[in-house]
Amino acid sequence: MTGVKVEITVNGRSTTDEVEPRLLLAHYLRENVGLKATNIGCDTTSCGACTVLLDGESVKSCTVLAVQADQLAVTTMEGLAGESGDSLDHPVTAAFRQEHGLQCGFCTPGMVMAVAGLIAENPDLDERAVREGLEGNLCRCTGYHNIVRAALVAAGKDPDAAQAAEAESDAARTAPGFSAGSSEGAGA
Amino acid sequence: MSIMGTRVVRVEDPVFLTRGATYTDDLTDERLTGALHLTLVRSPIAHATITSIDVSAAREAPGVVAVLTGEDIDLPAPLLFPGANKAMVRPWLATERVRFVGEPVAAVLTEGRYQGPDAAELVEVDYEPLPAVVDVHASATDEVLLFPDAGTNTAAVYNKEDPDPDFFADCEVVVTRDIVNQRVAAASLETRAASAVWGDDGRCTLFCSNQNAQGARDEVAGWLGVDASQIHVVLPDVGGGFGAKIGADPEFGLVAWLARHTGRPVRWSESRSENMTGMVQGRDQRQTITIGGSRDGRVKAYRLDVVADAGAYPRLGVFLPVFTRMMAPGTYDIEKVDSRARVVVTNTTSTAAYRGAGRPEATAAIERAMDLFAAEIGMDPAEVRKINVVPPEKFPFTTKGGAEYDSGEYAKAIDLALEASDYAGLRAEQKARRERGDAKLLGIGVSSYVEITGGGAFAENASIEVHPDGSALIWTGTSPHGQGHATAWAMLASDQLGIPVEKITVRHGDTDQVPEGGGTMGSRSLQTGGVAVHKASLELIDLAKQRAADILEASVEDLEVDTANAAIVVRGAPGSPTVTFAQLAEREELKVKTVWDGKKPTFPFGSHVAVVEVDTETGKVTVERIWAVDDAGPVLNPLLCEGQRHGGIAQGIAQALLEEVVYDPDGQPLTATFADYGFPSAAELPSFDLVPMETPTPINPLGFKGIGEAGTIGSTPAVQSAVIDALAHLGIRHIDMPTTPLRVWEAIQNAVKEDG
């Protein structure tokens, strides 16, 4: 097998290795660098458990070859945990804990990085924008309710107010009488 | 103030949110150094005889250490469900016949991970296709047999009595319907994985992703023909289970055997497409529901006929219709209930438990029946339900399904859901839209449900030890995979002992540390394992008091716990000497082990109201809101409890709207990847409105019932009902799940045609 040399900055540290050209970035991070937070949950780029930031933009690391990341900078969830490796000071991880945005934890590293990427792109998020922004990241445990809240909190929003606003906007369409607390309905 | 009922954030999270959890495939355990990677060659054909297997080219491929077929394995083939026909065993690797797409045919062991799939592609298998049996009714005819030696495709029959032809004779109104509770995939985000290594002591350490270490140990030991003490199962963190990780998978046995055979550690972690054909799937019942009663809304008789699909090799799915039959009457007090079930094998993936496991199928059936009955007599579906539910004064209530419901206020739950949703307002809006001729119509669905939790094993053990440094260790036979037991069990002990949650560690899922245990399934954990931790805490206090009595020179009766200081003190004697648990532990080991046996299951219940918008031009359904009353007794930690409800509701909605494991007539799976399977994302779901209600059970001292599956059981029928309700004015009475845009659109087109 012919190896190709790559140099990839991972969480601020320079890494280098000879890799097979077909090696996925996800496997490079897990096997070559030894960072196991990034998970692989599917083989069709559907689940997003492997989401990392590549030069600041969220990508699914199962759909990027390690050679494509050569000379670029990758951030994984471990990279949010500070020098000590156990800090929960990052607003996204702190919000996930506070809002119980994780259960089994498998989607979590990808979900956290997707949220970090989403906020970097657009800090002014509402519930709908969060839901659509996280469409590429699947979670089987939480029903997304608390993940959405965590994303809103990390973006500096009040999750109760944001969820109420989204419910109100649904209510305005589905049952105008409901949002006003009356039971007369509309337009009859 | 007691810690009980408070929103304690999880002690699991700091690791999960920094370096990540450690799943089986993440293990860097030194015992696994130099492990071989297992890749399985799986059948691409659903039903065929194998005419030849040529592994010679694969054996020459780079990195290959061994390629094995079934003939190389000297172990009897396992019967995966003990009660099944003895001829329905699953070969470790198929040699003569394959019975589903995904069945393992050859095992490839390689030094490197990527070398496995490369070599597996070089294994040449010749198949002679046989007619595939995919439909359960076709299977029941026995025209094509999966196991000729069994002489039948039927794996089980429950209730062999012929139905009474006069069963509905005294009913003014009788409605009957064939409905489908479709097959779905558990789709835990972590696929299946196992690693095995045999030590010099002749014991096997088996790391695997599972919901019950002790059960997996016993099964694997049985398959390998060794004593259970020779198998040490260790569950690392588990990335979701949802019922599909109950019981050992035959692949675990194969991994353990291969490690013994090669003398090297072996690792296996399946891909998602392997998982979508290899891991057990759930539900899959064809049901005929018949309901009869009077025009004043009283239901008098209900019959449920089930034909369930076991898949190719019988597993737990063969048993689940027992739960379906038991829970058939739901929350209703019905004079006559009759049910029967047949379970057959087909050329598909095996079925087993999936969140709810037999109970959602019962609830979906009776709730559809109530809706059909309500529509037939022209009464509001919520009203019909309230007329027929078991009234509070009848508890404990023994049902015609044979269950003893412990406690419940079913009408109150319905009322709470109706109030929260402003049901009358929603109905008015629905009417207005219809009158305006809107393209986007509103549908409202109401469900009432009761389910059974802790229905498998009623007893569970717990041990607690306090250490001289004031920390404590809890060992539990439950096996969390996302539920948060480390937090919840610590809260239960902390509540009694006063030791802070962060100083309590919970151990589980290691059969050397916890040799006995029932694992986590059937929403059993809190009401069995949690109550056991509570009981162990009380026994530890008794032990501590006995020892403290001498030290404090007081009688045991005069001692009490000072939870502020985790100490034993003399009651009503401030300033007198005290002794902390830690100080007692310094003198002598301070540890208790106990078993809590509730002897019975409990029956959580609730009611959901779902509102959907149906676009009549496209058939697309959007869930706008869902209000859920899920009463599982007192809530230990609302954060965790709500999380369970959220996840359950989402999975329930997904079954109603999106998810279905589909096979074509040849048994080819059409939904074998996440690109094809209808797994919902955040964009397809709303936030959920949870309505609190707490009715304790008398079965245990804390009043706890299970909450793990309730959301799933309540939401599916509410959402399905809402979709149909949106179109009720067109004469539409039923649409099978999942209510996809195509099905909804077709139903509308057919209704309009009939009308025209």
UniProtKB/TrEMBL annotation, chain A:
Domain of life of the organism encoding this protein: Bacteria
Pfam families (alphabetical): Fer2, Fer2_2
Family matches, as InterPro entries: 2Fe-2S-bd (IPR002888), 2Fe-2S-bd_dom_sf (IPR036884), 2Fe-2S_ferredoxin-like_sf (IPR036010), 2Fe-2S_ferredoxin-type (IPR001041), Beta-grasp_dom_sf (IPR012675), Diverse_Oxidoreductases (IPR051452)
Organism: Pseudonocardia dioxanivorans (strain ATCC 55486 / DSM 44775 / JCM 13855 / CB1190)
Region (Disordered): 162-188
Keyword Oxidoreductase recorded: yes
E.C. number(s) listed in UniProt: 1.2.99.2
MF (Gene Ontology): 2 iron, 2 sulfur cluster binding; metal ion binding; oxidoreductase activity
2Fe-2S ferredoxin-type domain span: 4-80
Ribosomal protein listed as a keyword: no
Record keywords, A-Z: 2Fe-2S, Iron, Iron-sulfur, Metal-binding, Oxidoreductase
Protein name: Carbon-monoxide dehydrogenase (Acceptor)
UniProt-listed PROSITE patterns: 2FE2S_FER_2
EC primary class: oxidoreductase
UniProtKB/TrEMBL annotation, chain B:
Record's protein name: Carbon-monoxide dehydrogenase (Acceptor)
GO molecular function, one term: oxidoreductase activity
Top EC category: oxidoreductase
Pfam families (alphabetical): Ald_Xan_dh_C, MoCoBD_1, MoCoBD_2
Gene3D superfamilies: Aldehyde oxidase/xanthine dehydrogenase, a/b hammerhead, Aldehyde oxidase/xanthine dehydrogenase, molybdopterin binding domain
Keywords, ordered alphabetically: Molybdenum, Oxidoreductase
Native species: Pseudonocardia dioxanivorans (strain ATCC 55486 / DSM 44775 / JCM 13855 / CB1190)
Annotated InterPro entries: Ald_Oxase/Xan_DH_a/b, Ald_Oxase/Xan_DH_a/b_sf, Ald_Oxase/xanthine_DH-like, AldOxase/xan_DH_MoCoBD1, AldOxase/xan_DH_MoCoBD2, AldOxase/xan_DH_Mopterin-bd_sf
EC assignment: 1.2.99.2
PANTHER family per record: ALDEHYDE OXIDASE 1-RELATED, XANTHINE DEHYDROGENASE
Aldehyde oxidase/xanthine dehydrogenase a/b hammerhead domain span: 19-131
Recorded superkingdom: Bacteria
